[in-house]
Amino acid sequence: MSVQGTDSYRSGIPLPYLVARAVEVARESGFAQSCRVEQGRLLHALASGARGSIGETGTGCGVGLAWLVSGRQPGVRVVSIERELCLVEIATELFQDVPDVEIVHGDWTRIHEHGPFDLLVVDGGGNGKQTAAADPEVLLTPGGSIVVDDFTPLTGWPPVFQGRPDTARSAWLEHPALLATEVRLAPDLSTVIGTRRP
Question: 182: which strand partners?
Answer without folding.
Answer: 192
